[in-house]
UniProtKB/TrEMBL annotation:
Segments passing through the bilayer: 21-41, 288-309, 338-361, 384-407, 428-451, 676-700, 720-742, 762-787
Natural source organism: Roseivirga ehrenbergii (strain DSM 102268 / JCM 13514 / KCTC 12282 / NCIMB 14502 / KMM 6017)
Cellular component aspect of the GO annotation: plasma membrane
InterPro entries in alphabetical order: ABC3_permease_C, MacB_PCD, Macrolide_Exporter_MacB
Domain ABC3 transporter permease C-terminal: 293-412, 679-792
Protein name: ABC transporter permease
Membrane topology reported for the UniProt record: Multi-pass membrane protein
Region forming the signal peptide: none
């Protein structure tokens, strides 16, 4: 029986090549999108799950509160983990990570820039899974002044030669390479390239042999704890209360503060919803939901195409169905045969889609466009194969169930008389399905355009300082800092350079956070502020506006005597006149005073509102050399700067970037999200148009005699197109009306991630409907035009 069904199916599909190809194309595209999405979600949801002990690794983060202060930080005090290990037997070991002071590696007088350099503990290889290529995993970091590097760094420094026992310099220390580990997978929340043995002890943590509680309130490193099997998180947190009272609260009580410990499981960090300061880049779980909904909507659109085309052609298959029933086929076997037909087409589409997904992932630039990186490893995961089979079966059933039920109801007597006509219910269902297709397609396209509006708004919004024509040179090397004055003098002689400054912080990319004592309500109170450091040229270089008082002159003797705040800080403190208000760092004995107020500017990305800020004077060269230049002829400027740099600091490479590009990178995740949804919206529309092409071709073929008569009576081709297109136009307009509020609600929820939102453009909604109308009109026009070209005598000769 199955062989007979297969024979009938293949014969039918071959006889109807055009509609078979349309169905296969739609199903293949839908399944390809689903396979790519499955692999993408698998990659995203498996963050940090490659670690062998990952289910027992936790990161400690902290919520620290006090009057005027609130830190929600991913970092901990380096003293915390050893203290916890002594008092809690459920802790097996730990690994702390403290960033290196200078992010560079020197080998034989040649310096290489590298961001991800950390000091850590020798047990890091027990906490994290590191696959060693060279060296001994167990003892690699057991000795002082030892270092392990990634495969990437090894190839950059030594090529194919062995790196073991080679000496490199980091932070002014000579270190021996004792191990090389494989590059970490992309789906890890914490990436490191170089790990150095040993975490430095902070001197102020112990005073005269007595532990200083304040040290725990000053986090400076990431703490990862490996718990023993059977760890009970709730019980640990209950026991921690006594530890908290003993070690945290002696200082906490002095400042009327609170401390709350938060334990995050390793695999849950990347998609954790809570906002934590100084955390690594995190994913948005809402994006996964949106992508999943859109991705599987694409597949459903392909299923709708199949249903529409199958039921629309019911009249052509009526006689076949009638003959099958006369020959003894009952309704159940007939439905099974029609479902089998659907499953055959889905199975063929599956083979094609697996091939397309493989080509898309391994050989196209699609993933680099989205800034994602995973391999086509579908067959390496039995769970994905099982899910794919379920998906295929469901697709086959969804596509074929309604046509099977609909076609099996055909009465053999009417069918064999040759006058079977589909009832009106089938037509209304098809229209409803087409309406649903366009609601999805127009809705996704509208959302894409509104997202683009928001991103363009962020790019064009005034930040309160000049982000363009700012060149940032990395000068973390101590030699580069000592040569700052020389470089500054030479640069300022260049007529294309307007100003030169130096700082350890940059607005938009690198901002500090400090607790100060400030004059408020007649007394000195503690208050947390975001901080930037700058010299006397900082304000001029960035084009910031001074609202009150003065800025630093450059002859200040110390950096804690004078302060400049922003307008938000002055408002928060209730300072109608901020000039000469007392202010100082938390432990400062002799307070300084406020000398100026700068206009508010966005020193974070536009996801965040403007917060209270203090600009602290620093007359020492910082980590960044900042150059403001006149527009035009940038290539000559860079060449001149590079020549000056190489003459002044020959052994240290020039590492520079443009500030506006760095600021654009803040929205990279948003742009990638928009790119993915744009791709999905194009696919939605394309699949909808595939189905519409089939339906239009079928409807036109059914009305070819009507078209012939209208041509004989003098109708123009455009008039015939208008008649054929009128019903579809009503459906598209209705779909636009339905999708508009849905898109509006979804975009409003998405823009809640930004402190500044672009106004919702109803023009974008209209554009989506116009695009759908024009594309549909083009398809209908082409089909009608080809049909209307035929001589009416050929169409009407049998009438």
């Amino acid at each position: 029986m199955n062989f007979i069904n297969l024979k009938f199916t293949l014969r039918f599909l071959w006889r109807n090549k055009f509609f078979t190809l349309l169905n296969l194309l739609g199903l293949t595209l839908g399944l390809t999108a689903s396979i790519w999405l499955m692999l993408y979600l698998k990659n995203e949801l498996s963050y940090d799950k490659y670690h062998e002990n990952g289910d027992r690794v936790y990161r400690f983060s902290h919520l620290i509160k006090a009057p005027g202060v609130e830190f929600n930080t991913a970092f901990s005090a380096p003293e915390l983990s050893p203290m916890l290990a002594e008092e809690f037997p459920e802790i097996e070991t730990y690994a702390r990570f403290s960033p290196a002071n200078r992010r560079e590696v020197t080998l034989k007088n040649e310096t290489f820039r590298e961001r991800d350099i950390f000091y850590t503990d020798s047990d890091v290889t027990k906490v994290f899974t590191l696959n060693f290529i060279e060296g001994n995993l167990e003892s690699a970091l057991s000795e002082p002044h030892s270092v392990i590097i990634s495969e990437n760094i090894k190839e950059r420094l030594f090529g194919n030669d062995s790196a073991i026992n080679q000496i490199i310099e980091i932070d002014g220390n000579n270190l021996k390479i004792t191990g090389v580990f494989e590059n970490q997978p992309e789906n890890t929340h914490f990436k490191f390239q170089v790990l150095i043995s040993g975490i430095a002890q902070r001197e102020f943590a112990f005073q005269d042999g007595v532990f200083n509680s304040e040290a725990l309130w000053n986090p400076s490193c990431a703490n990862y704890i490996l718990m023993k099997p059977g760890f009970d998180k709730a019980r640990f947190l209950e026991k921690f209360k006594a530890f908290n009272e003993k070690y945290f609260m002696p200082f906490g009580n002095k400042i009327n503060g609170e401390h709350h410990l938060r334990i995050q499981k390793l695999a849950e960090i990347h998609y954790d919803k809570d906002k934590i300061e100084d955390d690594f880049a995190k994913g948005n779980p809402n994006n996964l939901i949106v992508f999943s909904i859109i991705g599987f909507s694409i597949l459903f659109l392909a299923c709708i195409n199949y249903m529409n085309l199958s039921t629309a052609r019911a009249g052509l298959r009526a006689r076949e169905i009638g003959i099958r029933k006369v020959l003894g086929s009952d309704s159940i076997s007939l439905r099974m045969a029609l479902l089998f037909e659907s499953l055959v087409q889905v199975s063929v589409a599956l083979i094609l889609s697996v091939t397309m997904a493989w080509l898309l992932i391994e050989y196209s630039g699609f993933q680099s466009l989205l800034n994602v990186n995973f391999s086509f490893n579908l067959f390496a995961h039995p769970d994905l194969i099982g899910l794919l089979l379920v998906l295929v079966i469901c697709t086959g059933l969804i596509s074929g169930l309604y046509p099977a039920l609909y076609l099996a109801k055909i009465k053999p007597v009417k069918a064999l008389k040759g006058n079977w006509v589909a009832d009106r219910s089938g037509s209304w269902i098809r229209r409803g399905l087409v309406l649903f297709q366009f609601v999805i397609s127009i809705g996704v396209l509208t959302g894409t355009l509104l997202m683009k509006d928001q991103l363009n708004f962020l790019q064009d919004k005034e930040l309160g300082y000049d982000k363009d024509q700012i060149l940032v040179i990395n000068s973390q090397d101590s030699l580069a800092r000592t040569k700052f004055k020389v470089l500054k003098e030479v640069f300022e002689q260049n007529p294309q350079i307007e100003a030169v400054s130096s700082s350890n912080f940059l607005p938009g990319t690198d901002v500090g956070q400090t607790v100060f004592m400030v004059e408020k309500d007649g007394e000195m109170q503690q208050q947390e502020f975001k901080t930037l450091q700058g010299d006397a040229n900082y304000l001029e270089t960035f084009g910031m506006t001074l609202k009150e008082g003065t800025f630093y002159r450059g002859d200040e003797t110390r950096g804690n005597a004078y302060f400049v705040v922003n307008e938000t800080a002055a408002r928060m403190l209730g300072w109608e006149n901020a000039i000469d208000k007392k202010m100082g760092f938390f432990h400062q004995e002799e307070f300084g005073r406020v000398i100026g107020v700068v206009g508010d500017f966005n020193f974070f990305s536009l996801h965040n509102p403007i917060e209270p800020l203090v600009i602290v004077f620093n007359n020492q060269p910082g980590s960044y050399l900042i150059v403001r230049f006149r527009p035009g002829n940038e290539e000559n400027l860079i060449a001149s700067i590079k020549s000056t740099w190489e003459k002044t600091i020959p052994n240290y490479p020039l590492n520079y970037s443009f500030l506006n590009q760095s600021l654009r990178d803040q929205y990279e995740a948003d742009k990638n999200q928009n790119t993915l949804i744009t791709s999905m919206s194009i696919l939605c529309i394309f699949i909808s148009l595939i189905g519409l092409s089939g339906l239009s071709a079928f409807n036109v073929s059914q009305r070819r005699k009507e078209i012939g008569i209208r041509k004989v009576l003098g109708a123009m081709t455009r008039q015939i197109i208008q008649i054929i297109f009128s019903d579809t136009l009503k459906i598209i307009v209705l779909a636009g009306i339905i999708s508009a509020p849905i898109s509006y609600w979804v975009i409003n929820k998405w823009t809640e991630n930004f402190a500044y939102q672009a106004p919702v453009s109803f023009f974008s909604m209209v554009i989506s409907v116009i695009v759908a109308v024009l594309l549909t009109l083009s398809i209908v026009s082409i089909i009608v035009w080809f049909t209307s070209r035929k001589n009416p005598s050929e169409t009407l000769r049998y009438e």
